[in-house]
Every structure is written in structure tokens, then in C-alpha cells.
């Protein structure tokens, strides 16, 4: 048996694919780099961002002028997905640098700074508290409401979401600054990614904080969410239906608005239900649709007003 085993020829193996080789090289590089290299890269990026942008005084600038700064922000957004790196970034004064860039005249830097801020804050309570104390939320709401460049509002809304979810101080600031109204307004944006992110955040906030139902109904969110459903079908519709379900359940005023014949919601929901049936990829949206029909149009009024 030993002789036979020694004489046996190894089975031929297929050559490693390019994608697999690239993954292996990246994994080895990360293993060899260690935390010290990541901190050094954070410091390098911050030094670059602290310096002036080449050509900043020029009236028209392109990627060639701010490419270094944009690249540094893209690198930071990736690095700060790690909690350890995000903690280091904050300890190095990174949040203060980002707050300055949120008001930069060049839109890619405003958008990049918002993305890095969101990456730092999304799972790090200390970063959330520090950013809120520095005044990040008013600056981000300004970007959401009025920035003329289409790249900035979605990035600002991402950062806002990371500062207010599971963060009582962030939500309190959002309400005080009129941020709920801004989220409702984002549902009517011509940008599909912005509509989807706004619908998702509103749905999450309503589930986590049912007390927001009344104020949001008063701000016209029922009509805005219904209007969202009449736009071209995309990922925002699922969360738009979720928003309407939350507003109709346990909120008599929200339920009355959903039932208003002028809104035309019943016909819209019945048509949508037929379109979604048989499509597994839209199962959750279909469930919201059926739930809303049941709450508003297929349940006796005295039952549907009960808090569920």
C-alpha cells in the first residue's frame, strides 16, 4: 500500500482564477498590514485633507484639481467601516476635519465628507455623540434640503440616518431642527436613491418610535407616501407601504387620511397587489400592500382603530 501510494500521481488541479488570486493577495496584504498600518493610513489621509485643495481659487475645477482629497475621503469611508479604525479616526480629530468639509464649495468633497461621517457614526455611539455636539446635524440637514448637486443629498441623508437611529439625542435634535419635515420632502425627490433612503429611514423611525405617528401625519406624510407609490416602481415603494401601514395602525388620524377617497389609495393598492402576486422578489412589498388593504378597507372601522 505504501509503495502504491508513493507511485500514485496527484490529481490535476485547475489553475486559480484571477478573481481568486486577487482575493488571496488582498487577504495576505491585510493580514501583514496590521492595525498600525491602518492608523498610519488614517493619519496620511487626514494630513492631506487638512491641506488646501490644488486649484481651489479657480472658478471651475474638476477631478484633476481635487482628486487627492476625493481619494482620501473614499479611502477613509472604507477604513472607517471597521469600528477600531473609526475609533482611531475620531481620536485623531477626524470628525472636526469632516465638519469643515461639509461646507466646502466643491460638491464631491461635501458628499465624501458626509459618507465618511456616516461610516464612523453608524455603529459607534461615541462618534455619534461627538458629531452631534460639533453641530453635524444642522450641516447635514442643510445638505439634504438645499444642496444643488445631486450627489450631496443622498450622502447627507445616509449620515443623518446614522446619527438618529438608536440615538435619542440625535432624534431630539432632528425633531427640533424640523428634520422630520425634510425627510418627508425627500420622498418627493426626483432621485430614486434619495427617495428610497428617506422611505427606509421614516419606516424605521416609525417602528422604533410610534409617538412620531401623530406629528408625521400632521406634516402630510400620508399624502406624500401615497404619491411615492404613484412614481415609477423601485425599491422605495416597499418602505413607502411600510410607512403607510405604520401611520394607519393605532393612529385614527392617519387611518382617516388613508381612507380619504380623494387619495385614491384603495384602487392603487388593489392594482398593486395584482401586479406583485407571483413575484417572490416583491414578497415583503406584497405583504405590506395586503396589510394596508386590510387595515384601511377590509376591516370594520371600530377594529382598525385599535392599537396593534
- Please tell me what the overall shape is: elongated
Radius of gyration from the CA trace? 25 Å
Proportion of helical residues: over 70%
Secondary structure category = mainly alpha
What is the string of SSEs from the N terminus onward?
A: HHHHHHHHHHHHHHHHHHH
Helix count equals: 19
Query: Uncertain regions: pLDDT < 50 for 5+ in a row?
Result: 1-14, 304-308
Strand content: under 5%
Distance between the termini: 72 Å
Q: Tell me about the biggest sheet?
A: none
Taking all residues together, what is the mean pLDDT?
A: 88
Q: Got a strand count?
A: 0
Short description:
The chain has 308 residues and is mainly α.
Q: How would you characterize this protein structure?
A:
There is one protein chain. This protein is mainly α and 308 residues long. Helix content is 72%, strand content 0%. The protein has 19 helices and no strands. It has helices spanning 2-7, 18-50, 63-79, 83-91, 94-101, 107-121, 125-134, 136-146, 152-164, 168-176, 179-186, 192-208, 213-218, 221-229, 236-248, 252-259, 265-276, 283-297, 301-304. Helix 15 packs parallel to helix 18 (283-297). The longest helix has 33 residues, at 18-50. It is elongated, with a radius of gyration of 25 Å.
Q: What key phrases describe this protein's structure?
A:
308 residues; mainly alpha; 0% strand; elongated; disordered C terminus
Amino acid at each position: 500500500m505504501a509503495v502504491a501510494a508513493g507511485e500514485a500521481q496527484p490529481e490535476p488541479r485547475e489553475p486559480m482564477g484571477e478573481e481568486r488570486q486577487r482575493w488571496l493577495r488582498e487577504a495576505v496584504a491585510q493580514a501583514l498590514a496590521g492595525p498600525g498600518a491602518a492608523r498610519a493610513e488614517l493619519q496620511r489621509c487626514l494630513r492631506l485633507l487638512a491641506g488646501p485643495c490644488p486649484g481651489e481659487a479657480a472658478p471651475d475645477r474638476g477631478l484633476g484639481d481635487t482628486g487627492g482629497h476625493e481619494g482620501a475621503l473614499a479611502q477613509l469611508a472604507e477604513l472607517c467601516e471597521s469600528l477600531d479604525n473609526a475609533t482611531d479616526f475620531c481620536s485623531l480629530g477626524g470628525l472636526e476635519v469632516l465638519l469643515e468639509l461639509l461646507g466646502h464649495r466643491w460638491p464631491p468633497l461635501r458628499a465624501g465628507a458626509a459618507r465618511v461621517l456616516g461610516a464612523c457614526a453608524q455603529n459607534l455611539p461615541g462618534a455619534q455623540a461627538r458629531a452631534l455636539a460639533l453641530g453635524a446635524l444642522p450641516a447635514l440637514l442643510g445638505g439634504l434640503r438645499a444642496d444643488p448637486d445631486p450627489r450631496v443629498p443622498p450622502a447627507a441623508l445616509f449620515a443623518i440616518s446614522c446619527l438618529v437611529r438608536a440615538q435619542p439625542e440625535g432624534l431630539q435634535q432632528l425633531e427640533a431642527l424640523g428634520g422630520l419635515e425634510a425627510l418627508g420632502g425627500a420622498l418627493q425627490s426626483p432621485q430614486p436613491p434619495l427617495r428610497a433612503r428617506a422611505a427606509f429611514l421614516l419606516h424605521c423611525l416609525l417602528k422604533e418610535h410610534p409617538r412620531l405617528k401623530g406629528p408625521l401625519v400632521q406634516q402630510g406624510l400620508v399624502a406624500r407616501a401615497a404619491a411615492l407609490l404613484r412614481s415609477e416602481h423601485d425599491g422605495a415603494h416597499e418602505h413607502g407601504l411600510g410607512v403607510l401601514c405604520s401611520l394607519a395602525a393605532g393612529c385614527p388620524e392617519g387611518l382617516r387620511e388613508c381612507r380619504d377617497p380623494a387619495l385614491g389609495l384603495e384602487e392603487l393598492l388593489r392594482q398593486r397587489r395584482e401586479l406583485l402576486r407571483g413575484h417572490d422578489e416583491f414578497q415583503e412589498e406584497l405583504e405590506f400592500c395586503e396589510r394596508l388593504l386590510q387595515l384601511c378597507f377590509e376591516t370594520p372601522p371600530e377594529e382598525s382603530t385599535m392599537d396593534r
